[in-house]
Amino acid sequence: MMDPNSGFCSKTRTYHSLRPIVHDPPPPSQPLSITEYVFSLLHRHRSSSSSTATSTTVSDPATFMINNASGQRLTYSDLLHQTNSLAISLSKGDIAFILSHNSLRIPILYFSLLSLGVIISPAIPVDTSSDITHLLNLSRPGIVFATSETSHKLININPTWNCRTVLTDSPEFLSLLTRYDDDNSVINHRDNVVNQSDIAAIIY
């Protein structure tokens, strides 16, 4: 009764998703990061989908995200490879404070950090310097990701935290996205244990 093109069922008069069924994560006792779970859905979709217009594969140039202002695109393949490359370059266990406007680099950064079990602490770039200082004192991050436009608000980082700042629009950061091109990602390494009960984010 369901139209395979639209998903509309004439009997129930409801629309159904044309995407494959997404199954729940494994039991909470099994280690699993958000990144590993989300990326497993991409792989599962690739293996279960046929040559349809909605299929998404890891190796094809299907677009994951578009920067509306510049027209720049991030493909699913680039998302996976750049997330892996960045994760290899980052340290485990820190709290990461993120002060950045939306960009194509943000999902890569989030997925990389979450794959390592790093707690992310995102802040709003339009907040005042005093607001940012208050949030920094609450989260006490080991690393801060900012941009050249927002870094001036990080004037009161406590030096005793040994916190380093990384600019996501710097050539150094961009090089980390392509430094490693290896499918044997830390995301899939079981030595990197991230439990489903672990804290993922500090939200203000």
Detailed description of the structure:
The chain has 204 residues and is α/β, with parallel strands linked by helices. The protein has a single domain (30-188), classed as 3-Layer(aba) Sandwich (Rossmann fold). Helix content is 28%, strand content 14%. It has 5 helices and 8 strands. The strands form 3 sheets. It has a 4-stranded parallel sheet, sandwiched between helices. It is globular, with a radius of gyration of 19 Å. Mean pLDDT is 85; it is low at 50-59.
Strand percentage: 5-15%
Detail the poorly predicted runs.
50-59
What is the level 1 CATH name?
A: Alpha Beta
Annotation, overall tally of beta strands:
8
Task: Return the structural class.
Answer: alpha/beta
Multimeric state: single chain
What fraction, in percent, of the residue positions are helical? 25-40%
Looking at the structure, what is the overall shape? globular
Q: What is the count of helical runs?
A: 5
- Radius of gyration, CA atoms, in whole angstroms: 19 Å
CATH topology, anyone? Rossmann fold
Order of helices and strands: EEHEEHEHEHEEH
For the biggest β-sheet, the strand order reads 6-5-7-8
Distance between the termini: 46 Å
CATH superfamily annotation: ANL, N-terminal domain
Give a short account of the largest sheet. Answer: 4 strands, parallel
What would CATH call the architecture?
3-Layer(aba) Sandwich
Mean pLDDT: 85
Number of domain modules: 1
GO molecular function: CoA-ligase activity
Keywords: Ligase
Protein name: AMP-dependent synthetase/ligase domain-containing protein
Pfam families: AMP-binding (PF00501)
